[in-house]
Amino acid sequence: MAPSYQPGDILRETLYEIQNVLGDTLETLTIERTVIGLFFTGVKLNNGAGGLCFTPIKTIPEAVCCPSSARAMPSSGKLKGRKVIEFVQEMFNGNPLKRTMGIATMNALSALCWTQRPPETYGVKMGVDALDVVKIPDNAYVVVVGAIIPALRALKQRGKPFGVLESDPLTLKEDEMKYYVPQEMVHEKVPEADLLIITGTTLINDTLEGLLAMRKPGAHAIVVGPTASMLPDAFFRRDVTMLGGVTVTDADRVLDMIAEAGSGYHFFGQGAERVVIEAVR
To answer: What is the pLDDT of residue 137?
Structure first.
């Protein structure tokens, strides 16, 4: 059966796979701690597992004053002790912060799945950055989705044309604007790509499935960032070749850092490790 490219289906399928692996254990898990930081949102489960997700501050128009912010996150102060299953089920109600917390929770649950059922059809490599191992053919045209700084730096050094899809072009440097792909050209440029390097943030705004559906036959795609740190089966069914995410090894330490506006530069090697997930060939 051909995979669906409907928005949100990758998350739905991944949640179904998590439920299959964990079974009744899922009903016993609760949230011990939640931090919504400036750059990342993190959770710690009552069994110690932790997970992260990008915090999409710019997509939350309510975050401008106290009354409207309260509507954006009405459960503040009441999250500790809630069942994990509630967090992941609320991902699909249209609230960006609940989507973010749900994804962070799914990433924590995915790490738990790997301990209970080690992967057989794919490999999980710790301490590896996907952008360091991805192979870019010399003549490939690359499209980067999101202002992924290491990818942009490497592509600029490569010295060949590429494209950047970014909802906020102000995040790009002056010398990167010549590669910028405006929204009206997305349907033209994505099908030209031989390789797509896609930020995991597309899982939050429901654009990942659509981008993957636009690829030309034979084009490769990788999804990177702490948000994309979950079971990979739903991605691989859509011919994503690699996930580059993060595994939390010390949840409290990482949550302390993101509570102080920490980013990956702060927590890599200090409670979290980069991870590459690839299909076994």
So the answer is: 86
For residue 4, the model assigns a pLDDT of 84
CATH level 3 topology of 122-246+275-279: Rossmann fold (3.40.50)
Q: Which CATH class is domain 9-120+248-259+264-272?
A: alpha beta
Give CATH 3.40.50.11590 domain extents, the chain: 122-246+275-279
- Quote the CA–CA distance of 144 and 163 in Å, as a whole number: 6
Positions in the chain whose pLDDT score sits under 50: 70
pLDDT of residue 67: 53
Identify the pLDDT of residue 281: 66
Inter-CA distances, 108 with 86, 206, 238, 250, 260, Å: 14, 20, 23, 12, 21
Crossing angle for the helix pair 9-22 and 96-116, to the nearest 10 degrees = 40
- What is residue 266's predicted lDDT score, i.e. its pLDDT? 85
Half-sphere exposure of 275 (CA within 13 A, CB side): 24
What's the sign of the alpha-carbon dihedral 103, 198, 224, 13? positive
Q: What is the mean pLDDT of the chain?
A: 92
**Contact by Cβ (8 Å): 100, 36:** yes
Would the pTM count as exceeding 0.90?
yes
